[in-house]
Specification:
It comes from Clostridium brassicae. By secondary structure, this protein is α/β, with parallel strands linked by helices. Helices cover about 30% and strands about 25% of the residues. It has a domain of about 170 residues: Rossmann fold.
Length: about 250
């Protein structure tokens, strides 16, 4: 498989604060990459780099053999559903069609019949077509997450980025979303930020552990577990200790 995301010796600063330091990472076509790390560790900054919303002042980054900004039309992005305004008076169909805008904002812009047909096909694939006329505030957390994924998929992206897509979901809804992503991964590359340490290794092909620096990048193994002191002392990395204990210590039980 060819590499479609290449990050070489990248460092990112917000004024004098270092968000990422000397990151080297390659993501292959149709890889399912999970990014793990503590809050404030640079995970979201890494997504911004790939999307071209943040420039790397140090190092180089290429996406689909191009500059991130120029490759953005081939990248689907799914934000945290908790940051989506559920009170906004818009229905499911309109949210999905928003993915067709692709940065083209105009008061006279109209969606074509082809746009709607393609949106309907994506909604059917994700099992939300029956909800197309429902106001988004009436959706469950899992349903809303599928709507946001559909919005990202309607442009037929080559890469799908997701920022904690299961953060506010119950256990069954989480599994439903991960099973959906595994199915989608047959055709597109998936990169997601997650706190679901206990289950992500059953779905991802590779895992990145990041806390300003990239401490681990390797194959995901079923039941992979990380030392609770890992991010404080990378030399203490161990594959097989108590994951639940690690989660409770680092993330406060998230």
């Amino acid at each position: 498989m060819k590499d479609i995301i290449e990050i070489s010796e990248v460092s990112v600063y917000y004024d004098k604060f270092c968000a990422l330091n000397n990151i080297n990472l390659k993501v292959s076509e149709k890889e399912f990459l999970a990014i793990l790390g503590p809050n404030g560790g640079g995970k979201s900054t890494l997504l911004k780099l790939i999307l071209g919303f943040k420039d790397a002042k140090v190092g180089k980054i290429k996406v689909l053999n191009d500059k991130p900004k120029d490759a953005r039309k081939s990248i689907g992005y799914v934000p945290q559903s908790s940051k989506f305004d559920k009170e906004f008076p818009i229905n499911v169909e309109d949210v999905v069609l928003m993915g067709k805008l692709n940065n083209k904002v105009s008061p006279f812009l109209k969606f074509t019949n082809k746009d709607r047909e393609e949106a309907y096909e994506v909604m059917k694939k994700l099992g939300i077509y029956r909800l197309k006329d429902r106001q988004i505030g009436q959706l469950s957390g899992g349903q809303l997450q599928r709507v946001l994924i559909a919005r990202a998929l309607v442009l037929q992206p080559k890469i799908l980025l997701l920022d904690e897509p299961t953060a506010s979901l119950d256990a069954q809804a989480k599994l439903d979303i991960y099973n959906l992503l595994r199915e989608l991964n047959q055709n597109i590359t998936i990169v997601l930020v997650t706190h679901d340490i206990e289950i992500i290794s059953n779905y991802a092909t590779n895992i990145v552990c990041i806390n300003k620096e990239l401490y681990y990048y390797g194959k995901a193994k079923k039941g992979i577990e990380i030392n609770m002191n890992f991010f404080q002392n990378p030399t203490n990395f161990i594959d097989h200790i108590n994951t639940e204990q690690y989660s409770n210590t680092l993330y406060g039980g998230i």
